[in-house]
Amino acid sequence: GIEWCIQNKATYNISIISMSLGANVNSDGTSPLEVACDNAVAAGISVVVAAGNAGPSSNTVGIPACAFNVTTVGAIDDSMNIASFSSRGPTLDGRIKPDVCAVGVSVTSAQANTNGYVTWQGTSMATPHVAGVYALLLEYNPSLSPSQLKQIIKESAVDKGDAGPDNTYGWGVVDSMNAVNYVAPVAHSIIVVNIDAPLSAEVNETIFVNSTIRNLGSNSETNIIVDFLVNTTIQNTTTIDFIQNGTSTNVSFSWKPTVAGEIYKIGIYAHPVPDENQICNNLRKKLVVVPLDWVVTGKETVTDQTITVVGNLTVQSGGNLTLNNVGLFLTSVVDGQFGIYVENGGFLYIYNATILPFYPLYMYKFAVYGNMAMVNCNVSYIWGVEGGGGDLSTSGLSIHSDNVSVLNSTVSYCKTVGIGCYASPFISGNKIMYNGNNNDFRYGGVYCAPETSPIISNNTFIDNKESNIYSGGYAAPKITNNTIISGINPTTWFPTTYYGIYTCLTFIPDVPVISNNSIIGTRIGVYCWGSSPRVIYNNISKNILGIYAPSSDISPFIAYNTLTNN
């Protein structure tokens, strides 16, 4: 279809392709469908693509939404809040997606095969809004190229979420009036295009804040006043003598933060010029963190408090930290900027605690090389630790010590894996749900690195992608009495989780034991790839395949299971 549009572009004056479709696979933009979309853009056709409905985890933007030159659209509600289902970036190769957002919640549309209407939601409903704005722009100026249209719609969007482009809202919410003003300018319109500054700085370090000021109006302007603000207080002011209509100029400020442990909100504000009415883009904001690490070297106990750590929490060797009934917030302004680290020989005991990022959009790291007991806790939005070990480079709660227990806790919405076992911890009684990013069969709920033997028992796994439990080469976990449940993709009606339990490359005598589990509604309940696990006394139902052992040279022991409706 895309190739047909390219071939017939001139015949039918095809200028825009709107694609409310896709696959929930995070990509680097090189899949055949994405290449075809970029070819269409190169041929002069704007391609507008739905981001997908696999949010709220990061790295959930799918194919072809990860293509380089398409306009990827996320979904908001009528209050301009991001829809929970709207897929987030970045792409597999780290680019920001979506590009923009539009209304995709409770959207009324014509109902097929009737004379009536129906209300739907999804990024599929948001995408045509953006395609329609492109059509408006082309109606005024048919010579605009796809790259010009994309730049206009991004620069004219209303910034939402944290300041500047992000992997939730992209460049912001599409504003059709602002966009039209780019090509059909009003008499007077000054905007702040961007704000460029470091994400973090040290006390008394000089940083430079740069910004581009653009004149969208039909008149040239003089004496434009521009303020530099820190926490809403004006720190400095400059005046631009002249900006010709349709052009931009740059301004620069220098500044030194003075307080450690502070999250500064900096901004660039261009004062409205006389007779300017559209002022929603006269201010751009950004966060700058000045870290103050919490380093535990002796014995510390914190009870019944809410703590915000602007930096890293590190329990050093010999340190002993107890957190009881604590709300702990880790501050990052990009994913994985700061985190929690328990060094070898350190002790961390966490009871009845909630651990979350201070800014919900940005995840933190959590790595345990020493000793830890986590009981009745809620831990969410962990980014992962680079170089985690084994054959998986990142994981959520990254455990590298046998002396770790995770009990009766909730681990959810982590980037790649809820819990990464690079040793043999005890994991029991937990809810492990909505982790992973659709990108690798090893990702999902719990990852067992090669040559480990964790005990995974009495947990509830819900909709982790791609595997609820993955057992790596020569790992021998004991997986018992767990409940594993998949969700359903509302577009394809396929299970959203591929594998209930995935085992690979294990041989007698050190093999996974999979017993007394309930595995419901996945694509493959138990997958044995080159492995010989003991699969016994499980209740496996409503999966597309119950148990699958494709290799002819292995001999898994499969007995006493109840398989129904697979």
Largest sheet: 11 strands, parallel
The largest beta-sheet arranges its strands as 14-17-20-23-26-29-32-35-38-41-44
Q: Count of DSSP E strands?
A: 46
- Spans of at least 5 consecutive residues whose pLDDT stays below 50 are 386-393
Fourth-tier CATH superfamily name of the domain at 1-184: Peptidase S8/S53 domain
What is the overall number of helices? 6
CATH architecture of the domain at 1-184: 3-Layer(aba) Sandwich
- Which overall shape is indicated by the principal axes computed on the Cα atoms? flat
Proportion in helices = 10-25%
Q: What is the CATH domain class of the domain at 1-184?
A: Alpha Beta
Chain-averaged pLDDT: 89
Structural class: mainly beta
What attributes characterize this protein structure?
566 residues, mainly beta, Rossmann fold, Immunoglobulin-like, 11-stranded parallel sheet, 10% helix
